[in-house]
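USER:
Class, as today's exercise, take the chain set out below, and explain how the chain folds.
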Amino acid sequence: MSIQNLIICDSKIIFDILIEIKEKLNCNLSFKSKEELLKLTNIENCLILSDHKILELENQIILKDLPIKISKLIETIHISFLKKNFNIQSEIVVGSYKINLNSRVMSDENKSLNLTEKETFLILYLKNQNKPCSVNNIQEIVWHQSSILETHTVETHIYRLRKKIKDMFNDDKFIISLKDGYLIN
């Protein structure tokens, strides 16, 4: 797990207080002025704590109702880190598409396609294998069915998923068939 970074902007008093209770925060702390903050190039991995909104920046915790109890401030910081990490982990890149795991939406720069839970899981499984996956293997892992069962569930779902992707993105090479099984291209 990477170290979390919290930048306190323009409030030296809040910074000094947080330094005193640093062990309860489990993050790196730094103090910056707004001008210094806007000059930084790699702050997308940071949370910014301020008493005012800085329009140019994301991942901000704005302290509106001061004074605030220390326990409430710590809770707010922890929750903000959790939300930020959840949002980072919720979107993955598969080929030339992004898939939002929360909303189950597959998108490119112009269009988006709603996926079912099973379609999302199937794409993720194929992506993570990095090698062709047999129908029997997909049937056991994705559908939790014995590979000895005679069924066309996998083939039917892949056919429908390919059709959805081709209709929306005009891409008929996203899931390819090889003699060893299916593969994300």
